[in-house]
Amino acid sequence: MAGDNLRVDLDRLMARIAALAEVGAIDGGGVCRLALSAEDRAGRDRVVGWMRELGLAVSVDAIGNVVGVRAGREDGPPVMIGSHIDTVRTGGRYDGNLGVLAGLEVVQTLADHGITTRRPIAVAFFTNEEGARFAPDMMGSMVHQGHLPLEEMLAVRGIDGTSVAEGLDAIGYRGDTPCGDVRAHAFLELHVEQGPVLEREGVTIGAVEGVQGISWTELTIEGVSNHAGTTPMRLRHDAGFAAASIAVLARGIANEMGGDQVATVGRIELTPNLVNVIPNRAVMTVDLRNTDEEKLKAAEARLLAHLDRLVEREGVKITRRSLARFEPVAFDPGVVAMVEETARALGHSVRRMPSGAGHDAQAFAPNCPTGMVFVPSVGGISHNVREHTEAPDIGAGANVLLRVALRLAED
Ligand code: HGY
Ligand code: MN
Ligand code: MN
Question: So what's the pLDDT on residue 180?
Answer without folding.
Answer: 77
